[in-house]
């Protein structure tokens, strides 16, 4: 797996697209054109490969040129990640079910990447499903859960969140043991203990293949925009004033940041890809 994955980095606001530009035409024709951004009110419609509009003679460079001219911030974040992960998941020599584990602080685009990746993999014929731990938490805790719920010192809330993660993990493993080929575990997974628990269960108990995708962004402008455009529309803040919701979510990020341990090769013994988007690292 490690041979199939390389780190995707950006310098300031520019993604590294070398891997995409160097793809041979045969591979380009296999994967199809880079997808356009979805309509806001229907962000993840079913995709039919027959609707691919790129003509056979159209070059990959032409696709990339058109993509670079797009003004969509979201479109500029992830295509390189899709190419690398889809190649790893399409490996015909290893038919082991694969777990892609998201890592990162809130408002870093993890769910966006997870859903776009699942949609792309499904489009190229790989049975993929996203398991969002936040959805399990919202089912368990009805109504508004304030920042106190995410305090690591709140033992009762920690127990509930751990149970939600465990339920999501069990459902994900059941999916992969039946019809699934790839599952995306969409959660913050910011502590090494959590990553180690999920990794060991998937690898040692279920014999799955696991690697992490870490999304890192330290641009406050982008984080604030993500909160306003995405988080305020979340069921977590239904009926809550925008000013109160923004303040609460920023406090939630601070609570996660206290425990956040980025992935490193010494303490996280797994294949991983870190995507630095709109970052100044």
From TrEMBL:
GO CC field: cytosol
Location of region: Disordered: 1-62
Keywords noted in UniProt: ATP-binding, Nucleotide-binding
Compositional bias (Acidic residues): 35-44
One Pfam family named in its UniProt record: 6PF2K
Record SUPFAM superfamilies: P-loop containing nucleoside triphosphate hydrolases
GO molecular function: 6-phosphofructo-2-kinase activity; ATP binding; fructose-2,6-bisphosphate 2-phosphatase activity
Domain 6-phosphofructo-2-kinase: 94-269
Gene3D superfamilies, per the entry: P-loop containing nucleotide triphosphate hydrolases
InterPro entries hit by this protein: 6Pfruct_kin (IPR003094), 6Phosfructo_kin (IPR013079), P-loop_NTPase (IPR027417)
Gene Ontology annotations of biological process type: fructose 2,6-bisphosphate metabolic process; fructose metabolic process
Compositional bias ranges of the Polar residues kind: 1-16, 48-61
Protein name: 6-phosphofructo-2-kinase domain-containing protein
High-level lineage: Eukaryota, Metazoa, Spiralia, Gnathifera, Rotifera
């Amino acid at each position: 797996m490690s041979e199939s994955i390389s780190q995707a980095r950006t310098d300031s606001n520019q993604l590294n697209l070398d891997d995409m530009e160097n793809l041979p035409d045969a591979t380009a024709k296999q994967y199809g054109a880079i997808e356009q951004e979805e309509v806001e009110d229907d962000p993840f419609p079913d995709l039919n490969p027959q609707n691919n509009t790129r003509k056979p003679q159209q070059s990959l460079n032409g696709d990339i040129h058109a993509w670079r001219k797009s003004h969509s911030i979201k479109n500029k974040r992830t295509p390189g990640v899709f190419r690398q992960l889809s190649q790893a998941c399409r490996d015909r020599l290893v038919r082991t079910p694969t777990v892609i584990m998201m890592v990162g602080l809130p408002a870093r685009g993890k769910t966006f990447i997870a859903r776009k990746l699942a949609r792309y993999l499904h489009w190229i014929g790989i049975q993929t499903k996203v398991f969002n731990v936040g959805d399990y938490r919202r089912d368990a805790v009805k109504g508004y859960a304030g920042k106190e719920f995410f305090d690591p010192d709140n033992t009762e809330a920690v127990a509930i969140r751990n149970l939600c993660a465990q339920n999501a993990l069990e459902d994900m493993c059941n999916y992969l043991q039946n019809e699934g080929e790839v599952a995306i575990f969409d959660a913050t997974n910011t502590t090494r203990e959590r990553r180690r628990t999920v990794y060991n269960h998937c690898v040692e108990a279920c014999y799955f293949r696991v690697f992490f995708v870490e999304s890192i962004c330290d641009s406050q402008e982008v984080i604030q925009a993500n909160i306003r455009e995405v988080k305020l529309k979340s069921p977590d803040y239904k009926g809550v004033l925008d000013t109160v919701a923004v303040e609460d979510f920023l406090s939630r990020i601070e609570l996660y940041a206290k425990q956040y341990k980025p992935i490193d090769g010494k303490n996280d013994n797994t294949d991983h890809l870190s995507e630095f988007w709109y970052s100044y690292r």
